[in-house]
Amino acid sequence: MKGGLLRGRGLQIYTWLVIAWLVLPIAVMILFGFNDTHGRYNTAWQGFTFKWYGKLFEIGDLTQALVNSLLIAVLTMLIAGVLGSLIGLALGRYRFRGSGAMNLVMFAAISCAEIVMGASLLSLFVTLAVPLGFWTILISHVMFSISFVAVTVRARVMTLDSSLEEAARDLGAGPWTTFRLVTLPMIFPGVLAGSMLAFALSIDDFVITNFNSGGTMTFPLWIWGATRVGLPPQVNVMGTLIFAAGVLIAVANALLARRRANA
């Protein structure tokens, strides 16, 4: 009895240590967004200030890099969300020639090392003489995130009750009406989860973006380049705001899920 209690307490301590280890970098980032630094290197605490939030967009190149990352992430979320949802719906609902190969390709894309995918996409663009830049980054992000959406939606589709769709068709609903009013609402949690995952994967990607960016700068690429001369506090502020937005979205999604469960 006493041994089991000690093991339980040890597991709790270990869990909290892991959580602290994961949260510590985020806490440091948030803290140094308020650092009243006067030099190029934002590494030593020099006082508390809110001024960097007022000067958030003072560095033009950094602001443009953030805008590029957000725009690419939103477009990736929309494009990969639609295409990946359709693939997931087909794989979860139907058995057709080539479905096994499609599953293999999807999981290969998920497990593939980023450096391999980045190099292969770069070779493709160079072979086709496609200029590297914003659009090649977008295509690359859609390519590696679409599998995550498809797998998420496929898992959701496989748990659906097909009798609801059959009932809708028995009542006179056509294929499109059945999909819009019955199927889509049932798979929407999976579509939303997959799309948000695509957004998260896109906005912080570095390796594949670095291969295919050309002259276009994204937020992670700008930070990597700035580490040689020192990171301004605005980087910490932008990172804090992105993290806060992610937390708010997660909380809102959890509240909506709880409301649907209690309805």
Beta-strand segment tally: 0
End-to-end C-alpha gap: 42 Å
* CATH hierarchy class name of the domain at 60-231: Mainly Alpha
What is the alpha-carbon Rg in Å?
Answer: 23 Å
Question: What fraction strand?
Answer: under 5%
CATH fold annotation of the domain at 60-231: MetI-like fold
- General form: globular
Which oligomeric state applies?
Answer: single chain
Output the helix-strand order: HHHHHHHHHHH
The average pLDDT score comes to: 87
The CATH level-2 architecture of the domain at 60-231 is identified as Orthogonal Bundle
Unreliable parts: none
Q: State the secondary-structure class.
A: mainly alpha
Profile the largest sheet: none
InterPro entries: Bact_Polyamine_Transport, MetI-like, MetI-like_sf
Protein name: Spermidine/putrescine transport system permease protein
Transmembrane segments: 12-34, 70-92, 104-126, 132-153, 181-203, 237-257
Domain ABC transmembrane type-1: 66-253
